[in-house]
Amino acid sequence: MSFYVIQFLNGLTTAASLFLVASGLSLIFGVTRIVNFAHGSFYMLGAYIAWSLVGRAGGGALGFWAGVLGAALIVGVVGAAIEIVLLRRIYQAPELFQLLATFGVVLVVQDVALWLWGSEDLLGPRAPGLKGAVEILDGRLPEYNLLMIALGPALLGLLWLLFHRTRWGTLVRAATEDREMVAALGVDQRLLFTSVFFLGSFLAGLGGALQLPRDAANLHMDLNIIADVFVVVVVGGMGSVAGAFLAAVLIGELHAFGIVLFPKITLVLVFLVMAVVLVVRPYGLLGTPPAHPRATGAGIEPVIRPAPRALALLGLAVLAILVAVPLVAGPYAVAMLTEIAILVLFAASLHFMMGPGGMASFGHAAYFGVGAYGVALVMKSFAAPMLPALAAAPLAAGLAGIVFGWFCVRLSGVYLAMLTLAFAQICWSVAFQWVAVTGGDNGLLGVWPAEWAKDRTVFYYLALILCTAGVLLLRRVIYAPFGYALRAGRDSPLRAEAIGINVMAVQWGGFAFAALFAGLAGGLFALFKGSVFPTYLAISKSVDALLMVLLGGVQTISGPIIGAALLAGLEEQLIRATAYWRVVLGLVIIGLVLAFPQGIAGFIAAQWERRSPGREAARVT
Amino acid sequence: MTVLAVRNLAKSFGGVQAVAEVSFDLSAGQLLAMIGPNGAGKTTCFNLLNGQLQPDSGSVQFAGRALVGLKPRRIWRLGVGRTFQITATFASMTVRENVQMALLSHHRRLAALWPRAAALHAADAVALLAELGMEDQAERACSVLAYGDLKRVELAVALAHGPRLLLMDEPTAGMAPAERIQLMELTARIARERGIAVLFTEHDMDVVFAHADRIIVLNRGRLIAEGPPAAVREDPQVREVYLGSGATFGARAG
Ligand SMILES: Nc1ncnc2c1ncn2[C@@H]1O[C@H](COP(=O)(O)OP(=O)(O)OP(=O)(O)O)[C@@H](O)[C@H]1O
Ligand SMILES: [Mg+2]
User: What residues have a C-beta under 5 A from ligand 2, the ion?
Assistant: First the structure.
């Protein structure tokens, strides 16, 4: 009995800490509609800054609490500064570009933290006066946890008062419900947004600072918390603080009891709950449908026309060069091109569902990873030869796409994207926790190509052939009736249904189709590296794919090719050149988002059109 | 021959009775105008007919089949075309491609992964557009069309699968007066030639009285008058409603 009580209280402790961070994220999303990936970074900064401040202040209670509060305030100011310098410029940009920019911030903050505090985990001080534990029904609970537990509802109460008893709070609520309305009221939106960012970041920083006595500060805190917090916010209903509280308790308890009841699948459990909630209540427990839904794409989509002759010739020329490269270049170049070819296919598959399909995925790594594990497992368990094993990759990923897609296409916009993230995290958790089959963190090694394809050059040609074929096939389908049906559903679901198109079914098909090609890319990648790891399924892999597509431009069919080549090349060079490659990459991403809100290929296409008038609103591919 | 038979159709949103006990019939080749002030329930009525909304009660018979409970895409396949008050077209496609989508869907070819969609049923689409005087616009993107032209695209799309019933929600909104008359003349001719039953709403009374075979008048969800134009024009209740709404009845309105 006492065990369950303690576990329950532990769950509430986790909930409080989740709520601190999630309430800030939800608040920011509610008002600014920005999905702030950097929110986890604010949390991490809070922990690190608190470590420094508290360490400097000495051991007293006053020093400790002043340090915690100081850290939160500093993070709040950092958040407000980022809003002023960066986000303010891109409020009109498509949702996904905003997400990308905030991911750039994530990268920058990671390296700043690395530079300032080093890569070692930093153990924080215990809270003075709360170092002991209390006895509850002959179980023991740290006193600090009790404080955290009390903090959750207290914060909820404070926020409630703030939102319902102050003019500022009323504006925030009004803006959450209907942004256009607030603009019409003549309120200074800039001040409102900046202050909301300050409060949201403050809360994240506070959450991080308060976590310090319980966990060491480390460089993985940001992405670790952000996945959980996304779940809380989405389950609670984006923009609803009370919903975030409810969801935080739900998820906190799920963690606490999941560990006891299903130790192997705790992580899966959390995301499964999210998937179920979203299917039953698409806008979360306490969320409401947005008053002015916004497309995730870049506004009005241009007409897609066949590639002009010049571009087709250019493509052929590039292909010819790629075929000739091994004759002149060394093994390093060949290996790099192999990887780029694979990434191009991966990006093209994501583009297929995001562009024509209008379904943004934050979790495309799921299908890449399932493909990779598919090959590895088939090879390992059935000692299958390479080609049949490789065929298992798209099949497994396509199957995953069919299953996950069935849920995802019931939602749209950010919610759909979040659900894809949830499924990707489920896959990641399985790979991570099911050690007996997947090898867990150690992955599966020795997934090498067959004897005839072992040679790097031969494998390069194999990858080149399969990836080129895959990309061309995806393109072909975009121009085929099915691709048109996808676009019809994206452009106007109302009209599509009114001419007999089953939009959900078409999207489901498109989702699975995209997953299939991502799986092929993943399978090739596994053979290329000779091993598979859970990182193939990780958030950062999904973000890579998003980056490639968005940098290239969602609206152009050639975009993902340019984006993938660029990103893979850039990352490779940066990693070789400097230990602080993240900050450079982050700044490059931020710079690109600010300079080319349409993506690079989109920008080139726009330039092209400017020079050839008459092709109004037509986007060459 | 009666194509559409509506009986006691009703729908309320919360406390608002948007459509209440509406009944009417419509025959092949006939143009039936549904008029009424803003918020009378016309669009809601259309949404009930094409399956976008489910009625609280009442029945809809189309060519002897019950439509209530069917999805819009199913009702479309039975031969009901529809245009929207606020145009709904595929902005990333050309005018011709918009029509082709309806044709591809009608011929159940949307699952095809290989052929080039732009080449399928292209001639049919262009022929239909030519009939509506839009062949010049066929290759233009829908996103750049004037609103009046978008309305024509909607009509072309709605006609593409050879429907037996056409539902047109304010087909001439956003057009110049001369254009309106012209479009309705065209619609009327096509409807008579092909024996299509047409139900349309319209705020322009000139258009209504010039082209409708019969008129039904809706006010606050209720049907307050029904009959040939001349009779409806003289109906005191109808005059009351329109005078009450501040519109000049019989001359320009809306
Ligand atoms: N989805 C909805 N939810 C709630 N109320 C609705 C909804 N759709 C329509 N209504 C209400 O039902 C009534 C009828 O609206 P409807 O759009 O059918 O009128 P209408 O005759 O088409 O008007 P208009 O001439 O302006 O197009 C109005 O009071 C409207 O506010
Ligand atoms: Mg209407």
Answer: B 42-43, 85
